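Backbone-to-sequence.
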């Protein structure tokens, strides 16, 4: 039987953040990935940043071995740099998500400017695709970015849900509704152009429902909240509860 949609990609970056706070090997993000897979994660997501603030190169290698042996996709998030392209070409993860990256940012703050950086992105996307990785582009749900994504070899767009999450956090319900409408409209457009639709960033137990209910959405990538919540309830219950809420929102 097929698993219910949307798939849940668990981003384990912040297990590495905790490990790096002391510079040793504990907690090991690869052991965290193993636990996430046992708890029902449909994929493992990890962002190798230019400054290596959480995941390290050897983590990515060990994650790829684990995911391959468990037949679970590894989704490597990366900036569109030559260094990251070469690492991804060597690593051959099932999926690569290209994200914008600024050294001084706390997290990925906005979507990728696919229309503005088209000539820079196209050869990187094509090289990764030809190498067997399915490329997704992390963008805002705006028409010109979706259309620009469809003009590349990328098969997937991941829509940035950070602004939606932030509006709800701030109690700005009307703004959140507007953003949700844009995400729904963007999902319809992306599907009509042949792109698979994912969502990610800032998703929590409380805000995942409306996003998971968007029928075109095939995958959610969620990290910070799940890892944070694992402190209180454990990783397995946090993943199971996120799955439960997402599938309940989709299927009622
Ligand atoms: N998707 C992408 C492309 C991201 O860059 C991130 C953050 O690394 C996430 C999803 C997960 O966001 P969060 O940690 O807020 O759940």
């Amino acid at each position: 039987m097929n698993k219910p949609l949307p798939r849940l990609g668990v981003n384990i970056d912040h297990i590495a953040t905790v490990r790096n706070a002391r510079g040793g090997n504990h907690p090991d993000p690869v052991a965290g990935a193993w636990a996430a897979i046992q708890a029902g994660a449909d994929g493992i997501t990890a962002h190798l940043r230019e400054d290596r603030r959480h995941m390290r190169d050897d983590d990515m290698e060990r994650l790829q071995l684990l995911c391959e042996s468990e037949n679970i996709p590894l989704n490597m998030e990366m900036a569109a740099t030559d260094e990251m392209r070469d690492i991804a070409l060597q690593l051959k993860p099932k999926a690569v998500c290209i994200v914008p990256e600024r050294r001084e940012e706390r997290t990925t703050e906005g979507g990728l400017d696919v229309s503005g950086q088209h000539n820079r992105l196209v050869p990187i996307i094509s090289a990764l695709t030809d190498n067997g990785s399915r490329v997704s582009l992390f963008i805002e749900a705006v028409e010109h970015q979706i259309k620009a994504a469809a003009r590349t070899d990328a098969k997937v767009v991941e829509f940035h849900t950070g602004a939606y999450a932030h509006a709800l956090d701030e109690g700005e319900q009307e703004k959140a509704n507007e953003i949700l409408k844009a995400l729904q409209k963007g999902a319809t457009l992306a599907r009509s152009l042949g792109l698979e639709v994912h969502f990610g960033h800032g998703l929590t137990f409380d805000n995942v429902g409306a996003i998971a209910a968007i029928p075109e959405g095939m995958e959610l990538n969620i990290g910070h909240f799940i890892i944070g919540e694992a402190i209180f309830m454990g990783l397995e219950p946090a993943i199971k509860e996120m799955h439960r809420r997402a599938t309940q929102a989709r299927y009622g």
